[in-house]
Amino acid sequence: MPARHLTGHEPFHRAGHQLEHRVLNFWRWSSSELLGNTLRGVLAEYLVALDLGVADGFRTEWDAFDLQTSTGITVEVKSGAYVQTWHQDRPSKISFGIAPTRAWDPTTGTYGTEYRRQAQVYVFCVLGEKDQAEADPLDLHQWQFHVLAAQVLNGRLGEQKTLTLGSLLKLGPDTVAHGQINVAVQRASMTGS
User: Fold this and answer.
1) Which of 3, 72, 90, 146 has its C-alpha lying 20 to 30 A from 57's C-alpha?
2) What DSSP character marks residue 97?
3) If DSSP codes are grouped into helix, strand and coil, which group holds residue 178?
4) DSSP state of 158
5) Distances (CA, A) of 5 to 62, 85, 98
């Protein structure tokens, strides 16, 4: 099935007969828990895509980077939160995977040979609420976005695979609210910091 925007009203079908279940039923079943690690990461990508003005396209799961601005800047989005969907005695320590990777080329079905950070700019998204009962991934006021050029990661951290939030903050990212990410990404791509 070619990629197209679904409305949620599309029915499941079998042998030409429509079933009562729709894509919206699947979305509700699979995508309602926005605080979970996997879906929160996808939500963070969407929030950044909204701010960059590129949320009208499609999310490509296996691209070498997560997003590309209209001016061609490649962006990697990482997500972390203090609270999870399970019981916690204390807030989680936030860390991000930043390992250099080999780029996947979907046109050839192969990986590149060089390990490197694929995007020009990283956006580290933190859902900052520490009270599980109050955490709401849909409340953009609860998010912070830390924007940093990959050049800084490469120059200061080399081949390092993970980065804690505390270590990230020592690198001096541009910390912004939603609505300011695009400007911060543009600035990071030009200055290399």
Assistant:
1) 146
2) E
3) coil
4) T
5) 18, 29, 31
The helix/strand count (H/E) of the chain reads as: 5, 11
User: What is the model's pTM?
Assistant: 0.92
Cα–Cα separations (whole angstroms), residue 39 to 42, 76, 113: 5, 16, 30
Q: Which of 31, 65, 67, 40 is nearest to 51 (CA)?
A: 67
Q: What is the pLDDT of residues 50-106, one digit of tens each?
A: 999 999 987 877 778 999 999 999 999 999 999 988 888 999 999 999 999 998 887
Domain boundaries, given as residue ranges, for the chain: 33-191
The rounded distance, in Å, linking the Cα atoms of 68 and 106 is 16
- Cα(144)–Cα(54) distance, rounded to whole angstroms? 19
Q: Helices 37-52 & 181-191, crossing angle to 10 degrees?
A: 80
Q: Nearest-CA neighbor of 121 among 187, 49, 53?
A: 187
Q: Whats the size of the chain, residue-wise?
A: 193
- What phi and psi, each to the nearest 5 degrees, are found at residue 29? -70, -45
Is residue 193 scored above 60 in pLDDT? no
Only one residue has tokens 């912004």, namely 176
The Cα 125–Cα 37 span in angstroms is 12
